[in-house]
Amino acid sequence: MLWASNSRADRAPGALAEGCPARRESPEENHEVVSEVEMPENEVQKFYETLKRLQEPRGYYFNADMTMTSEILKGLLKNKARYGYMSCPCRLASGNRESDKDIICPCAYREADVKEYGSCYCNLYVSRDWNEGKIPHSIVPERRPPEKTLIR
Ligand code: SF4
């Protein structure tokens, strides 16, 4: 069994959630992971436009930092190809849809996170105020219960 936690140091090597620039520690690390993701740009663009059309009227905006947004969207598409569902790129998925249903994007924690911090855990979906710099860009703590991060 592997316990996944919100601390990168606690995770097993090679088991880090990919495609999440918001949770990485250095620009060099970002660069390494970006280069591993192979996803056609036009596919990412189409995905972006579809989600934007659906989510903006609900008050969820994409992070205006398009480099970060594009990378997280690539992570979602990569997880869709890998698991068959779009698990959060910033968290470890178990590979079991039922166990991971709370972290299928948009996750069960997005609403509360955007309400409290102006941003989801990954910094993909944000409020208008967050994008406009009217509220601080603080690190969003993991809201997922610890027992849900147990990978069997
Ligand atoms: S909404 Fe949730 S699942 Fe989607 S990117 Fe943000 S934190 Fe991850």
Break the fold down into its secondary structure elements and pairings:
Blueprint: E1 2-3, H1 27-36, H2 41-55, E2 61-62, H3 66-83, H4 97-100, H5 110-117, E3 125-126, H6 128-131, E4 150-151
Helix pairs in contact: 2-3
Which tags fit this structure?
single chain; 152 residues; mainly alpha; two-stranded antiparallel ribbon; 5% strand; disordered N terminus; binds iron/sulfur cluster
Q: Could you explain the architecture of this structure?
A:
The protein is mainly α. 39% of the residues lie in helices and 5% in strands. The longest helix is centred in the middle third of the chain and has 18 residues. The N terminus is likely disordered.
Number of helices: 6
How widely separated are the two ends?
A: 5 Å
DSSP strand (E) fraction?
5-15%
Cα shape: globular
Structural class: mainly alpha
Q: Note the main sheet.
A: 2 strands, antiparallel
Strands of the biggest beta sheet: in what spatial order?
A: 1-4
Give the gist of this structure.
With 152 residues, the protein is mainly α. The chain is built from six helices and four strands; from the N terminus they run βααβαααβαβ.
